[in-house]
Amino acid sequence: MDWLSLLGLGAFVDRWRSYAIEAAIAAEDRTTLFRLELREYKRSLAALIGLSLGLAALTVVMLTVLSCAILVQFWDTPERVTVAWAIAGTWIAIWVVAAILVTSLARKAGNGFAMTRKELANDWTEIKEQL
Fold first, then answer.
1. Number of folded domains in the chain?
2. What is the pTM of this model?
3. What is the domain extent for residue 109?
4. Could you list the residue ranges that cross the membrane (predicted)?
5. 22 assigned to some structural domain
6. 68, 84 Cβ separation under 8 angstroms
7. Which of 2, 72, 91, 125 could cysteine-pair with 62, CB 3.0–4.6 Å?
8. Pairwise CA distance, residues 131 & 127, whole Å
9. Contact at 8 Å (CB) between 55 and 95?
10. Is 89 domain-assigned?
């Protein structure tokens, strides 16, 4: 004998069972999305660290060359000064490009898990509307 059907609760239990199944599927989808975004975030973070280390190395080189250029400026021939400042300018330009790359990558990394946050916000909005 099915007591739930006799009490008129069969449809109620079936409806809540379907809600639970749907919630489990949604949770699995959100977990998969989170894993995919976490992998992308880790990749972006690794690139940011690599570029930051490269930027640090370029900074050391830039300061070394810039120091040499300042020292050479006091030497006798003007050709040495021109070449030294050209080399220093080249290293400064390379450093600026690397700094721009690091900055743009840092901005992208700061927007991690955007799709997951959006999807969870949509879910929360739908839940509030149904309540």
1. 1
2. 0.51
3. 34-130
4. 45-72, 84-106
5. no
6. yes
7. 91
8. 6
9. yes
10. yes
